[in-house]
Structures are given as C-alpha cells and as structure tokens.
Amino acid sequence: MVNITFDSMTHFFRTSVRGALLSVFLLAGTAVASFAQLGVGRPVGRQLADAIIVKIDNQIVLQSDLDAGYAQEVARAEGKPLPPDIRCRLLQSIVMGKLMLAKAETDSVTVTDDQVNSELNRRMAYFVQQIGSEKKLEEFYNKPLKQLKDDLRTQVQEQLVQQKMQETIAGKVTVTPREVRQYFSRIPKDSLPYFSTEVEVGQIVKLAQVNESAKQATIAKLNEIKARIQAGESFEELAKQYSQDPGSGAQGGYLGFFKRKELVPEYEAAALRLEPGQMSPIVESQFGFHLIQLIERKGDSFSTRHILLKPETGGNDVNAAADQLAKLRRRILADSITFAKAAKDASDDKTSSASGGLLANRQDGSSYLPLDKLDPAIFFTIDTMKVGHITPPLPYRTDDGKDAMRILWLKSNTPPHQANLKDDYQKISQAALNEKKNKALDEWFSKNRGSVYLEADPQYADCKLLAPTTL
C-alpha cells in the first residue's frame, strides 16, 4: 500500500498517492490532474493513448489513466525529481482502486444518479472557471458541454464509488492527541519542513441583485421573440441571433437529451409540462430567463432547445449588496453573530460558506493559505490588516463573471517557522490520520487482493501491482 514517509519535506504532510488518485476531481486543487484527464493542455485532435494495460476481474486500466496520474504528480513536484519507479507506484494505486470497484460491485456499494450529476456539474463549473468560459471550453474540445459531461460520467461514477468504499473501510478511523504526538516524534528533526507565512482568510459574498426594471425588460424581449416565432420565424435562427447561452446559442438553442434532475429544477419543470413543438412561458432560473421549446421525449429523457437572455445589473444592485454586508459586518463586530455563522447563513459563495467563509488551500484542502500564493486582490487587502479585522464591503467579481461585493476577515497570520506541534497541530493531526487510514486500507487490501484475477501488459510485468509499497 501507499503510506506517508518522512524522508523529505516534500513528502511530509502529503496525502498518499492512492488518496490522490482516488480523489482526482473530488478535491480542490486538482486542476492539473483534472485537465489532464480531460486532455486540457494538448492540441485539439491529438489522441491520448488508450491501450488497456491492466485487467482486474471485470475492470480495466487504460494507459491514459496512468498518464493522467503521472501528470498530477509532476505538477505536485513543482520541478523536483520524482522517484524512478513512480509509474509503478501510481499504477499500483490505480489497480487498488479497481479492486475497490470490483468489491463494491460484490458488496452492492453504489452511488445515486443525483450524486453523479451534482459532481459532474461541480467539475464542469470548475473547468469553465479555469479556462475562462463555457464557450472557450467547448471550442477547445469542439464539443458541447453536454457531451463533455457524458464523456466523463462513467469515470465520475467510478471515482465516487471508490470514495464511498474508502469511507466504508476507513471513514471511522480517528486519532487521539497521544497518537498525534507519537507520530510527530517519529519524524527526524532534519526532515521537518519549514513553512512560509500562512494566513486564514474568510469571506462573505453577496451577489448584485437584478433590479425589477431590468427583469421586466428581459421578459418583454423574450416575449417579443416568442411572438415572432409564433408568427412563423425560425426558433433556431432567433436563438443563434439572440441567445446568451454560449454553449447552445450557436446550435440554434439545442441542448440535446437530458434525464430528470440533470437540469436546473425550474427549466426541467417547465419543459416537462410541454408537448413536443410547444413553447413555454418565460422561465427564470439562476442563469437568467429562458424561452423553452420541447423537441422530443424518449423514455425518461427529453430534448429541448431554448433562448437564454440575462438581465443587465446596475449600480444600485451592487449598492444593495454592499448595504447587506455592511449590516452583517456591524453585527459581527458587535458580537451578535460570528463570522462563520454569518457566512453559512448569508454568503452567496456556497463553496466557502460551507466552511464558515474560510477560503480553502487548493493543494491540501486546509484553511491555511501561503501568503506568497494568495490572489493579489486578497494579498494587497490583508497585507496591512491585523488579525481579527474585517474589511468594509469591497467590489468583487465571481469566478463566473457576476458582479458582487464581499467582506474579508483575517482570522490568523502565522509567521515563517519550522513545523511544530504548537503552531501546526492541525496539519500534523491530519497527516497522522492519513497514515492511520492508510494502514486500515492496507489491511483491507491484504485481505481482499487474493480474491481477484489480474493480468498486466508485459511492459508493467515487473510492477508488483497488488503488493504493499510506500511513497
């Protein structure tokens, strides 16, 4: 199995390779691995090698699976050399993941379609954020967003099942303070890492609300378009001309087939009330306002086309968001509510609100952010702040381009130092927990690895694919 070792600062406090492989796409900070899986960074049209390199019962491992894991490790190494047998070690982790899938099938461990769809939507939103827009993502692959999701669906489903199996095997493992101290005491003093300045930063975000006049103008425009279609003009041509959905607009508004619960509820509910060829009233969703036409029903799936218009926001809308934040800030400063509670209750940024507003380190998922890697907008704001201070409302643009305001809170500021139990207990505790969970997984694999058939490509014949290992 793959355990944490203490032979270098690079390895200290890292999750296992197995954990990294099984968590591709699932954890924050996996942009390189995620895009490697999709193929981002390679020229359009170039095909990844997809030869089958391992068979394990009814599961297979593709060459591209291994290549994606290797790309992730290269990115994490940040230019430092990797172990010469890194591909064997990565392949071991992937094979062990496939063993989990095989046992999950036997033990009836499954995930729901809703869970898969939710994860697919989250990942697509992340990809769009990284590459700039839905249109750029679709142009890069020459595929609509729907097809990109379909291409990833099986992979996502498998990864979620693997994650569920890991939770079943090691999810209840905990560490005591004594075990944390014992773990730390085993680390050679000359192997303790030196941490740069780290901060914990919280935010509460309020989106600019569209004013009523802008909404009514958008609805009126869509009703005009609807009347033109009813008078004989082409839905598809008007969608190409007016729709602000970059993915479907160029395709005449065509979205293709979706199953229930794959689209936002407002859109789906309106579409399913229609007969083929019929158009909906104007429908509002989180994306804007839609005019929908049902094309076809097929079993539990349906296909539609739509025209999307987005109301323009105005200065008054941002001012309203600022007013809301100013009131929240006064309540927090008066100790009538905590920052964490206010973020969970009121922030429009659901990613950070779930953690009480704290921004997450994309490398390890913790709340500690290296100062030298902060977003410049945050860095220059907190640079002169004292711990505990909260900014007045500040202009902010979300990753998907929406106007907003936010307040920032500097929770902590830890100066540069060598790892120690006082300042880094959370990190050390997590590393100790990772090690203990890996031991639980080791025991599970030892118990179950003899129950499967395995065949490897000759080029990987020397890799001991079901044997314990370390990284």
From TrEMBL:
Keywords: Isomerase, Rotamase, Signal. It comes from the Bacteria. GO terms for molecular function: isomerase activity. The keyword Chaperone does not apply. PROSITE patterns: PPIC_PPIASE_1, PPIC_PPIASE_2. Residues 196-296, 299-409 form the PpiC domain. InterPro entries: OMP_Chaperone_SurA, PPIase_dom_sf, PPIase_PpiC, PPIase_PpiC_CS, Trigger_fact/SurA_dom_sf. This is Peptidylprolyl isomerase.
